[in-house]
């Protein structure tokens, strides 16, 4: 029995034989249909990415606030961020206003915690900050699309490997505080960049599968992806800063 091609396949693989025939238009509807994502999941993804976009915006505001009124990163990165993280983690999804407010405050706090890093890179070359954000966006979009169009659960086998790699990365981070070896610093930077890029794929597929199973906690799903973005951006900014530090 012959399998019917999807509309996206037909649009891409069926060129015009007759020059007078109008070419089929490649639209987002065709792309969504090809990705085998249901309408319910699409609505969930819309809420997730809307929340994620707001969190990135509030993180940028946090960076600007820290540039204007510097605060010790230990305060913004730990004393404020951790309680907000636990507040989101342990509050029921029904407390939507509380959780959204906590998420935006957390994003602002995390943005403020990297303000000193942004300031140092701005002193080297202001264009590097925009380049780091552009590279982060490109990595995130590319990895997200890989997750959408991959076979369902294809990346789940990476879960144990990535969690183990994350633990190794934490150990490397602690080791660099005491050993001061440049090799360990670069291994932590580039290894973390690859690791959190892969986490975007894993977290996106986990989010989709949970939405298919009926879990609609879009605030927590947005937070998962936001943490990936922050970690990629910090490492990208550090790599670019080191490469331009004379």
TrEMBL record:
Instruction: List the transmembrane segments.
Output: 48-69, 75-96, 103-122, 128-149, 156-177, 183-202
Q: Name one GO cellular component term.
A: membrane
Residues annotated as coiled-coil are: none
Give the chief site where it resides.
membrane
> Where in or outside the cell?
Membrane
Q: Enumerate the UniProt keywords alphabetically.
A: Membrane, Transmembrane, Transmembrane helix
InterPro entries for the chain: Bax_inhibitor_1-related
Pfam families the record matches: Bax1-I
Q: How does it sit in the membrane?
A: Multi-pass membrane protein
Query: Which protein family is it in?
Result: Belongs to the BI1 family.
- Which named protein is this? Bax inhibitor 1
